[in-house]
Amino acid sequence: MASLSSAPDLPESSGESAKDQRIAELEAENRRLREIRDALIVRVESGSAHKPEPYAAFEHSVILAEQVRERTEALNMTMEELKASNKALMRAREEAETSRQRLNDAIESIADGFVLFDHNHCLIQTNSRFRSYWRHAGVPVPSAGTPIDEVKSKALSSGLIVEEHSHEDAEGTVFLLSNGRWVQMTERPTREGGLVVLYSDITDVKNSEMARRIKALEESERWIRVVTDHVPALIAYVGADLTVQFCNKVYQAWYGQPGQSPLGMRLDEVHEPEFYQRLLPQILEVMDGHSVTFEFDETGVRGEQRYMLRSYVPNVDDNGEVVGFFVLIRDITDRRKTALALEQAYDNLEKRVRDRTAALTGLNAQLRQEISERAAVEARLREAKLEAERANLSKTKFLAAVSHDLLQPLNAARLFTSALQEQSFGPRAEGLVRSVSTSLDDVENLLGTLVDISKLDAGVIKPDVTAFDLRDLLNNIAREFRQMAFAEGLRLDFVPSSAVVRSDSQLLARILRNFLTNAIRYTGQGRILLGVRRRHDHVLMQVWDTGPGIPEDKLTEIFQEFKRIRPSGSQADKGLGLGLAIVDKISRMLGHEVSVASTEGKGSVFSVQVPLGQLQPSPAATTDIQKVEVDHGMSGARVWVIDNDLAICEGMKTLLEGWDCRVVTAVSVPDLDAKVDIAGAPVDLILADYHLDNDENGVDAVAQINGRRSQPAPVLMITANYSNELKQHIRELGYLLMNKPVKPLKLRTVLNHVLRG
User: Fold this and answer.
1) Which of 220, 492, 554, 667 is paired with 715 by a 20 to 30 Å CA distance?
2) 574: closest CA among 457, 698, 438, 381?
């Protein structure tokens, strides 16, 4: 940190010294001429040794007198000029002193710390604000002439500077001083090669910025906890030191002692020693980077006997180190009891059959009774099995049905985080925002994958099979994953195709995206190929990679849930092992055959067989959102946002205003009517949530708004409902459709698409 103390007055100018010296020389010359004059006069008047002729002596005296007179007059004129110059010099000196005093007063009046260095970067002058920094820290103020490097070194070593932050995009370096104040240093060179340094106090700005950031983080954390607390499973996160860093209410209720939460406790403190020893092998395996799933019977703190299905998923940082693991525990006691009951019933049934068979001869009546009992037992078994299946299906349908409530807070958190990422903060704040964004991505991917599996199991997702051209689908997917591959140091090659196939375009795209995601995840180096092979009545859509390959005995296992085959020596990832399981379920739903071929050490190829189709003439083009080329011309776009969730409204407004849009938010049509003139106010896009309060929906709300306008506005409908009925309805209305959670980049693409008409 550069600093200066008060310096003494500047020395007099070199011109003033030269004039004083010249005056002294002229006065000495004047005295010498006077002495010569007096000597000549004395010699002429009193000289007797030499007797010149009278006329010559007189003539000589006259000449000498004339010369003395001329020199005396010249000397007097010079003296007058010197006196005038001296007066001008005195006035200039007074003016310079006045200017210097005014400059000092101006420097002292500056609210910022001020430091001035000369062309050798040695200290010249400081103001009192800068000197107060040093006095508050109890450090002597550097004296005049101190080099700038010595000043910086002294500020660091003395403890005056507590923290230092710099960024290439920032205007200057920011310091935290020992008095708790934040200052920003800016440097400006002078014309003489010197340096002016200003220290501006930005403490209030930093405090306000930190308060807003902390509030946003707390809000995100609150929504994450709301989501996990309503999931019917035990969820927790355990750090590398085996301490419980997060858990939902269900986990806390099962493992927490009365009046005590398991948060902050080590696992060997949460569980009984004997039970912890049973868990230890699985804990060591997940800390080694492997996902594990296993079943254990255990007793709760209140003595309940339950049977739990546990899944441990490692959390890996950017360096491939395991920094903790996620815990997902599901209660399968009812399912286990049903299985045991079935096993016991079958055992009893076999015993009874043997007994009755041995006594069959003479016990015909008893045999008929036994047959009746067997039928009753089988009926009870079938009923128990159906009950178990209904219970399991009920849980699956519940998780699929609450996807809107799960994704709503995540959607708000994503909007706020995206808005924060577009703001300019210090490096430390930007790192925190990126960490929050990464954590939200992990939670979003985890819940999204679980909800997708549940929806597929519950039959919520119904395929919308139509004939379509593969050209746009393949181009969009290749454009999306080419950047992802490039970021991992891989090359993605793409062979386009214009084949017409018959399938569900969105579900088929999901299969290809999962293929490409796995290829990028497990390919260390080389390239990935996306292409289509034509056959007689179908096409093979394939993804080739140059990864480590898959052992032959594992080719069917990779399509099971929570199964991942990680080659030896490769880095662990954050996947759940559900990508190919989703592919398997979607392909069965569509009736498309999926196959895989692999050679260890060379790579793998994943294929999906899709039947050919024939396009039907359609008067209206689809309104599904496809990727278009991004254009940043959104300045001044007028957007109305309608959502019953105030957090979503605030998040969407923050994000859109960051893109220079003019945004009006409302929770209902009456709320919007109170804020703008619906009939006459100009608007470029209406962005509405499908699910509103009081059994209302976004379609009706938009119809009511456009019904009052002479020219209807474009509409973007946002929903967590993936049903084909709603999709078809939105398409028939000519609206754009986007599913939650909203991706900011995709939303920006849609806005550009609408604004370009």
Assistant:
1) 220
2) 438
Q: Report helix, strand or coil for 711.
A: coil
Per-residue burial over 403-420, b if 16 or more Cβ lie within 10 Å, else e, is beebbbbbbbbbbbbbbb
Nearest in space to 578 (alpha carbons), one of 239, 303, 313: 313
Alpha helices in 139-298 (DSSP H): 148-157, 203-229, 249-255, 267-270, 273-287
Q: Nearest 5°: CA angle at 411, between 652 and 689?
A: 65
Prediction pTM value: 0.38
Nearby residues of 299 by Cβ (< 8 Å), 6 or more positions away: 305, 306
Q: Are 3 and 151 in contact (CB under 8 A)?
A: yes
Q: What tokens does 603 get?
A: 């790579």
Q: Which two tokens stand for residue 136?
A: 């508050």
455: amino acid identity, one letter: K
Q: Where are the alpha helices (DSSP H) in 622-720?
A: 646-658, 669-675, 698-707
How far does CA 242 lie from the centroid of its chain? 27
Which among 313, 312, 320, 319 has a CA at the least distance from the CA of 296?
312
Reported as a single tens digit per residue, the pLDDT across 38-70 is 777 776 666 544 445 666 667 777 787 787 788
Given a cut of 50, the residues of the chain with pLDDT beneath it are 1-13, 48-51, 400, 569-570, 572, 619-632
Residues 6+ apart with CB under 8 A from 247: 234, 235, 236, 237, 255, 261, 262, 263
Taking phi over 0 as left and psi of -120 to 50 as alpha, with beta for the rest, 81 belongs to alpha
Question: Tokens 């930005």, residue?
Answer: 202
The Cβ-side half-sphere exposure at 68, using a 13 Å CA radius, reads 17
**Confidence at residue 632, expressed as pLDDT on a 0 to 100 scale:** 47
Per-residue model confidence (pLDDT) at position 12: 42
Separation of alpha carbons 302 and 379, rounded Å: 35
pLDDT at 324: 92
Which tokens go with 556? 């069917």
Compute the distance between CA of residue 597 and CA of residue 602 in angstroms, rounded to an integer: 11
Q: CB burial class (10 A; 0-12, 13-18, 19+) of residue 122?
A: middle
Amino acid code (one letter) for 41: I
**What's the pLDDT score for residue 611?**
93
Q: Which of 547, 544, 578, 551 has its CA nearest to residue 565?
A: 551
Phi–psi pair at 161, nearest 5 degrees: -95, 120
